[in-house]
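User: Before I run my own analysis I want an independent prediction to cross-check against. Here's the chain; please return only the structure tokens and, at the end, one sentence I can use as a sanity check.
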Amino acid sequence: MNPDSKIPKVSVIIPTYNYGKYIEKAIDSILTQTYQDFEIIVVDDGSTDNTREILDVKYKDKIRYFYQKNKGAPAARNFGLREVKGKFLVFLDADDWLMPTALASRYEYLINHTDCGWVYGPWYYHEESGKDVTERFRLYPFAYRKERKGNILRYLLLGELMQTSTVMIARELCLAVRGFDCNLPCLQDYELWLRVAAQSPVGFIDECNVVVVTHQGSISQSATDGYETRLKIMRQSEIMYPETIQKLGYKWKRKYAKVIAERGRHLVLKGNASGGGSLLIEAIKKDPFTPHHYLGFIRALLSFLQRD
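Assistant: Structure tokens:
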């Protein structure tokens, strides 16, 4: 646990930006793990709150602390990736936390399944209301019902997601795929897991021991336009994973058309009826059997005519 005592087996990277009110819960959850051969790396992404004071007072000898100017969570994670010593990594968001067996279950899985370079599991959502966190835990249903392991690239391409805080990954594998893409405004974790899935099978732990906190400031509730980014990732995926996409056949075309249509409708709502209409036509060409695409195009056309 002491960062200077020896080379740890596991490195937990915590990116944080003005999350002083959450970070103690995250760090304490690591310190109380049943598996203790780890290091904690906190990358402060330019915080202006009391984060540094909290860390200096309570955790100075228990973590490795780094500060950078505000560049976003993906850049902070990549910074941590360059500094880690452990063989396996966990990227824990500063507002999430781990139940006591989270590190042990993942480490043991990867040690016993050497064909897998990474592993994940289901998670709880912990809902925050104002300053108080409720005691209700809500299990994320899709991750728990569908045990996706092995080659999951085809599932990820169709849009199934995993929470970053639930993943443990081999450092060499993460370095080999060059970490998070900081040029994307959002969905950087999803794009990373696509590249990782193309390189290595994944394991799945049927044990829910990670807690993801949802609140007003969480990335998952950001107003960032994710349609454009998702469409960019899908266009890029057609170049990077052509064989898998070909096997998906109509499932891919239907999903691709849905994302194109979502982006198109979003543009129409933003006042760009021409650009949105063009995308909706593209969606119709890819998936001519979905009536919703036609309705979207009609709305775009009416919006364009009303504007003129």
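Sanity check: Confidence is low (pLDDT under 50) at residues 130-138, 140-144, 219-224.
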